[in-house]
Amino acid sequence: MFIEPRVGNGREVPRRGWIEVVCGSMFSGKTEELIRRLNRAKIARQQVEIFKPALDTRYHEHDVVSHNANSIRSTPVALPQEMLLLASGCDVVGVDEAQFFDESLVDVCVQLANRGTRVIVAGLDMDYMGKPFGPVPALMAVAEYVTKVHAVCVRCGEIASYSFRIAASEDQILLGETDSYEARCRHCFLEGMKGKSPEAASVAAKH
Ligand SMILES: Nc1ncnc2c1ncn2[C@@H]1O[C@H](COP(=O)(O)OP(=O)(O)O)[C@@H](O)[C@H]1O
Ligand SMILES: Cc1cn([C@H]2C[C@H](O)[C@@H](COP(=O)(O)O)O2)c(=O)[nH]c1=O
Ligand SMILES: [Zn+2]
């Protein structure tokens, strides 16, 4: 799985495209896993392009940077359509923070895969309310491979699938780190939601 197959029995084989999604909560290792796969492709001398949403300026204007400071050069784009032109001739395209793009990202990834590109997309599957986030759930549906990674719940040490917001904002988009979010397991996420706004409490009440 996730090999870099371009040469078969010493002969060039036609390029085959596909989509891989790496999803999970904040701090679950999505960016690390994306960087690991992209670096392997570079070692295999494949042409790699990496994109991130222009709005994600948390760590660096250009680089994709993980919470433990691994990084890889990327191109910030405002719209998914820009990737179609910028990635022409590429073997592998990586996309980080996919949740910040609009739904057109799904069609762009499908077009790239259809024209023979391996597309690796990393992003949050759920927002701070535990609701599906942006185009990530739809990408999971059309992907050949979906990998859900997990963080460690900072409250109890169980595996964490939720990003619990400790900051006051109720906007869906709020850039941040440990200053604004905690990785939490289902139980600790629901416990936290009970003490929040009426909408948040109703999310917890449904469970
Ligand atoms: N609660 C946590 N659970 C797991 N890893 C954490 C946690 N808090 C910080 N980390 C660090 O975050 C790293 C993963 O960072 P990153 O790949 O950027 O995650 P993501 O892109 O999913 O937010 C881990 O290797 C670890 O060093
Ligand atoms: C849950 C949640 C997160 N965000 C923001 C916070 C961070 O800037 C990114 C996630 O980064 P990571 O690489 O996955 O750690 O998304 C948000 O805007 N809204 C949310 O609900
Ligand atoms: Zn917990």
Entry summary:
The chain is α/β, with parallel strands linked by helices. 27% of the residues lie in helices and 25% in strands. The protein is elongated and about 60 Å long.
Q: Order the strands across the largest sheet as they lie in space.
A: 7-4-8-9-3-10
- What is the total tally of β strands? 14
The name of the CATH topology of one domain is Rossmann fold
What class do helices, strands and sheet pairing give? alpha/beta
The kinds of small molecule bound in this structure are: adenosine-5'-diphosphate, the ligand Cc1cn([C@H]2C[C@H](O)[C@@H](COP(=O)(O)O)O2)c(=O)[nH]c1=O, zinc ion
Quote the average pLDDT.
92
Please bin the fraction of helical residues: 25-40%
Reported for the largest beta sheet, the result is: 6 strands, parallel
CATH class of one domain: Alpha Beta
- Which architecture of one domain per CATH? 3-Layer(aba) Sandwich
Parts with pLDDT < 50 across at least 5 consecutive residues:
none
**Element pattern in H and E:** EEEHEEEEHEHEHEEEEEHH
Q: What's the tally of helices?
A: 6
End-to-end separation in angstroms reads 36 Å
What is the CATH superfamily classification of one domain?
P-loop containing nucleotide triphosphate hydrolases
Principal-axis shape: elongated
| Integer-rounded radius of gyration | 18 Å
Note the beta-strand portion: 25-35%
